[in-house]
UniProtKB/TrEMBL annotation:
Catalytic activity: sphinganine + NADP(+) = 3-oxosphinganine + NADPH + H(+)
Pathway: Lipid metabolism; sphingolipid metabolism; Sphingolipid metabolism
Protein name in the entry: 3-dehydrosphinganine reductase
Short name of any one Pfam family annotated for the protein: adh_short
GO biological-process terms attached to the record: 3-keto-sphinganine metabolic process; sphingolipid biosynthetic process
Keywords: Endoplasmic reticulum, Lipid metabolism, Membrane, NADP, Oxidoreductase, Sphingolipid metabolism, Transmembrane, Transmembrane helix
Taxonomic source organism: Lophiostoma macrostomum CBS 122681
Enzyme Commission number, as recorded: 1.1.1.102
Membrane-spanning segments: 6-29
Amino acid sequence: MPDLLSIGVTLLLLLVVYLSLDIMGLFNWGNKFQVEGRTVLLTGASYGMGREIAAQLSSRGASVILVARNVSKLESALAYAQSLAKSPSTQRFHLISADVTSEAENKRLLAEATTWNGGRVPEIVWTNAGSSVPDLLLNTSVETMRSQMELNYWAAAYLARETLTAWLYPTTPYSPQSVEKGGQSEAPRHLIFTSSVIAFVNIAGYAAYGPAKSAMRALADGLRNEILLYNGARRSSTSTGQAPAPFDVNIHSVFPGTIKSPGFEQENKTKHAVTHLLEAGDPAQSEAECATACIQGLEAGNYSTGTNWLSKLMRVSSLGGTPRNNWVLDICGQWVASIVWIFVLPDLEGKVWGWGKKEGMPARKTELS
Ligand SMILES: NC(=O)c1ccc[n+]([C@@H]2O[C@H](COP(=O)([O-])OP(=O)(O)OC[C@H]3O[C@@H](n4cnc5c(N)ncnc54)[C@H](OP(=O)(O)O)[C@@H]3O)[C@@H](O)[C@H]2O)c1
Ligand SMILES: *[C@@H]1O[C@H](CO)[C@@H](O)[C@H](O)[C@H]1NC(C)=O
Ligand SMILES: *[C@@H]1O[C@H](CO)[C@@H](O)[C@H](O)[C@H]1NC(C)=O
Ligand SMILES: *[C@@H]1O[C@H](CO)[C@@H](O)[C@H](O)[C@H]1NC(C)=O
Ligand SMILES: *[C@@H]1O[C@H](CO)[C@@H](O)[C@H](O)[C@H]1NC(C)=O
């Protein structure tokens, strides 16, 4: 007759084994982001991290549609992605020049991408176009605040809305006959947002950009919950007259920290010195390193991906009601982060306060007065 103590110890040991396997990812094995033989629509693909994302997805066997404004830069990014193709004879590449801040342009580019893709909406859509114009709020025009929101929030919201509509409510309704069982048409779709670590912690100098990337994060969180309605309806026996899509839809966000990209160089033109000071210790990644980190997060099946240690730490420190990638690791990370903040917050605040005390009132653009 086993006593209570040995039953307790056994249960505890089983729990430890379970948690260890969970942490090692044994319950989440395999690549959750298969791109081979599939088509990716990627905005902001002509230079910066987007160019590397296109190339790395190409090397994994994806066909890629590259979107940005400047055609000659798109052409060179397309040639680069093509040169790294895994199966050059079957993978295809296409470029679309569009300003993604326009709602109409998002409609056009998705329609053009679908036609080019043989009438199928691309299976993976990644809204990556974005850039930051950092400055103190009181030195920023309302026009800049709005255009930052247009590019870093609205562009993603337009494309997300168009894409989800095209996937879930196609003009030609899904019929069971048209679906090849177990084939591409049933493989999950992926909608991916490129946000920023700034969505977890905003600091002096990003008053126009930070809120846009936070709004994007909130959009992704809401959609991540909302999409379950459609994924659930697929398994329903209740007929509403609207045929469900034959696939699940997955939503993801990636949160880069500093990327050494043309966009980051551009930031230098308006970035306040105190922002430089706050960012001085931040880890910086090359475009390729950051692209790899994003794709690895997607391959792990993670809903949200920090691309370096700082972004990972900030992610777990501000989980709120956001879906967890791994309950054990994310909760432990949360505990660590809450201790780290005890030191980081006074440091951030002290630096900004100290700057004001030393340098005095900041100069302001005269045209803003
Ligand atoms: N760099 C960083 O440190 C950093 C940190 C965190 C997050 N991020 C985010 O990561 C993403 C990539 O950043 P990055 O630094 O690699 O960007 P980047 O070097 O500035 O490149 C931006 C890309 O977006 C395109 N683009 C810009 N405005 C556009 C518009 N209105 N319509 C269509 N395409 C447009 C650009 O091409 P065209 O100019 O030809 O249109 C280019 O392909 C962005 O969403 C950015 O906000 C960057
Ligand atoms: C596109 O980029 C090229 C190469 O950097 C540049 O020469 C050209 O002026 C740009 N075109 C536009 C329309 O901005
Ligand atoms: C941006 O400016 C800072 C300080 O002014 C400088 O140290 C840094 O090298 C510059 N970075 C880029 C990418 O131009
Ligand atoms: C996926 O998320 C888990 C839990 O947060 C994390 O430990 C893991 O490193 C992530 N994987 C990648 C490749 O980012
Ligand atoms: C405000 O903007 C002007 C023009 O871009 C710039 O010269 C100035 O340094 C900015 N002021 C501060 C405090 O950043």
